[in-house]
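User: For my dataset I need records formatted as: sequence, then structure tokens, nothing else. Please produce one.
Assistant:
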Amino acid sequence: MKRFLIFFIFVFFFSLNIHIASADLKKVNTEDLISIIENSKGKVLILMFWSIQCPLCVKELSVLEDLNQTYDSSSLKIVSVCLDSDTTKVNKFLIKKKIDLPVLIGKEDVKTNFNILGVPKIYIFDKENRLVKRQIGYIDRSSLINIVKSLI
């Protein structure tokens, strides 16, 4: 009985984690992202494009996780757009890396329209929706934190 209960609890929590991670995997196109940018007025917005196969992306995601936990959602919005189309692999990755950020899956038009030739790529918008920083490649923790602090 005790083993059954432990097994049941393990299965329950494992399935709960899968459900939580998969709940945020909405596929978005360019219009969706433009709408997100427009609706973020009044907040600093970080829009990050990444892939599960990119080690620097993983490093940058951890910085975004910290920022997301440090700042209130009324002042900072982080939008994480994974460019991998295999949602099963993305879900497994999110669970393994314990990433709690909301994750969207970018459709093919996103790569073209946002000119994504490599990842990570970050766009940072101020509270007036003006693009203040476009970073192609990794941006170090202190630089990203300083940019956000100066805008909030």
